[in-house]
Amino acid sequence: MAWAQLLRSWALWLFLLALFLVRVVEVEEGGRKTYLALFPWEEVRVEFVNSVTGRPVLLEFRPLFRLQDFRAYTDPETEAYYTAGEYSWNQSLARERRKTLAYCSEVGLALKLGSTWFRVEKGCLRLRLLWPP
């Protein structure tokens, strides 16, 4: 009897630990939804080419308690296109906390969640953190 109680106790703690560590993300593309489980330390990437400057842009962030810890990588001209040279893009992005993001592109973009890639041209990808609520 004591072993059964101990096993149930361990199972409960393992379940709670898994519940705390797992992030459930929904990706919507053209009405089709895909669900993924991620860990909070996994990086999410969005890659696209800025249609005005013609230069690549890379956005990285993590699914902690929100989609957060954003960083952007691009050339100075493209950063100035987004910020008009008025502020530091990465300092501003570092304060962002979102449950939902949508990215649209006419020329194409790629979204990487964990090891899974999503690509779209002339359309949008919507990313939503479902768990934790």
Descriptive overview:
- The chain contains three helices and nine strands.
- The longest helix is centred in the N-terminal third of the chain and has 20 residues, at 2-21.
- It has a five-stranded antiparallel beta sheet with strand order 5-4-3-7-8. The chain has a four-stranded antiparallel beta sheet with strand order 2-1-9-6.
- It has helices spanning 2-21, 76-83, 89-94; strands spanning 23-29, 32-38, 44-49, 56-63, 67-73, 100-105, 109-113, 116-120, 123-131.
Question: How many whole angstroms does the radius of gyration measure?
Answer: 19 Å
Q: Mean pLDDT score, rounded?
A: 90
Helical residue percent band:
25-40%
Biggest β-sheet description = 5 strands, antiparallel
What is the terminal separation in angstroms? Answer: 37 Å
Strand order of the largest sheet: 5-4-3-7-8
Number of helices: 3
- List the helices and strands in order: HEEEEEHHEEEE
Q: Which structural category do the helix and sheet elements fall into?
A: alpha+beta
C-alpha geometry:
elongated
Low-confidence segments: none
Please report the total strand number as a whole number: 9
Portion of residues in beta strands equals over 45%
Give a summary of the structure in a few sentences.
This protein has three helices and nine strands; from the N terminus they run αβββββααββββ. The protein is of the alpha+beta class and 133 residues long. The mean pLDDT is 90.
